[in-house]
Each structure stands twice: as C-alpha cells, then as structure tokens.
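Structure in, sequence out. Go:
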C-alpha cells in the first residue's frame, strides 16, 4: 500500500522532525522537513484533529510533490466537552504561555457543573500522497486533571495531567517513560505498523 522512500514532515518543530526522522530511518525512509523546503504552515481551519492533521499533510504534499506526514494533538477535558481540544495551542495565546492555558482549563473546570476530572491527550497523524488520499491514525492516553500544576520535565499541559494508576503528572515522569506511553507513541505505533505491513514484499 505505501511504497515510498522519501517523505516531508509537515512541521516546523525541529524536535518533532528529529523524532520522526529517527523512527523512519530504520525503514529506509528519508525525511525532509517543511522548514527545509520553505513551506508555509496552512491555517488550521478544520474542527477535528483528523481534519487539521489531514489539512496540514495535504498542503505539504501538494506543495512538495512528495508524500507528507503531519500531526495534530491536544488535551480534551471531559467536563469541558472536549475543550481545549484542537485549540490546545491557541489557548496558550501569543506568545505561548502554558501557565495561563492551564489556569484557563482549571478555571473553566471549576465553573463547570461537574466534578469530573477525566481528560485525555489525543494525537492524530496524517499521511497524504500528492494527488492521492489521506490516511490518519489516532492515539490517545486517558488520565485526569490535577491542580496545582506539578513537575518541570514536560511541556504544554503536562504539569496538570496525571495518567491512570500514577501519582506523578506527565511533567514529573521521566521523558523516556512518558514517550513510551503517550498518545503520540500510540499513534506512531499504528502508523509504523501500517507502513511495515505495506512495505512487506507482495506475493
Ligand atoms: P499542535 O502542535 O498544533 O498539534 O499543538 C498541540 C498542543 O497540544 C501543544 O501546543 C500542547 O499544548 C498540547 N499538547 C499536545 N501533546 C502534548 C503533550 O504530550 N503534553 C502536553 N501538552 C501537549
């Protein structure tokens, strides 16, 4: 199904690009980033993680003529009907301030008519082929919101997110351990499984 040797990583985040590159090298897939190609980030105008991931991947595939991989992720809080969701980065304002974004989450939860602390991180990966279709893979990790924020190891909303069965927040857990259990890891596992099954020689 997937037979290519080079893809564009539709992201300007060098950390993300490096992580994806490291995952794809063993599969013999070369990566080039949107930044290296001078591609602009399209505006995220869709209303779902899948929609925004697909929009970013499709824009990079059409602009470069190469298959393109993108991701869209965020925090979905049950008592807030899934907010901040696709707006997770935007809740931090410009310039980004996640201290403020976490306060906003906690204030909204305190005002909500629910004691439900449940939340999940979501990551959707999208792969678009030029002139072709888009495939998406979703990974999620469930947990609960805690207050006040704790830990300095993570990023974004990590200090207020506690995964099930743990007493530490994502910002108190070692990065290697977080990466192994994260929404991003789960989406990547599905994506890599699809790539590997497609890469197998056909009879
Ligand atoms: P994106 O880069 O547009 O997908 O923005 C996703 C936003 O969701 C980030 O800016 C973070 O605020 C938040 N987010 C996504 N994944 C994580 C995570 O693993 N930990 C903490 N925050 C995350």
């Amino acid at each position: 199904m997937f037979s290519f040797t080079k893809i564009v990583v539709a992201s300007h985040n060098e950390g993300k690009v490096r992580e994806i590159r490291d995952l794809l090298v063993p599969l013999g897939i070369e990566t080039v980033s949107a930044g290296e190609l001078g591609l602009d980030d399209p505006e995220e105008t869709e209303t779902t993680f899948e929609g925004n991931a697909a929009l970013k991947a499709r824009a990079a595939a059409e602009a470069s003529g190469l298959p393109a991989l993108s991701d869209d992720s965020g925090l979905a809080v049950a008592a807030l009907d899934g907010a901040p969701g696709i707006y997770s980065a935007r809740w931090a304002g410009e310039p980004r301030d996640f201290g403020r974004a976490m306060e906003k989450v906690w204030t909204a939860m305190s005002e909500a008519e629910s004691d439900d602390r449940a939340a999940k991180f979501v990551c959707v990966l999208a792969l678009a082929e030029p002139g072709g279709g888009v495939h998406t893979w979703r990974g999620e990790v469930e947990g609960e919101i805690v207050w006040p924020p704790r830990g300095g190891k993570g990023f974004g909303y990590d200090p207020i997110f506690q995964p099930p069965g743990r007493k530490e927040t994502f910002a108190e857990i070692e990065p290697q351990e977080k990466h192994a259990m994260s929404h991003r890891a789960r989406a990547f596992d599905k994506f890599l499984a699809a790539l590997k099954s497609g890469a197998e020689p056909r009879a």
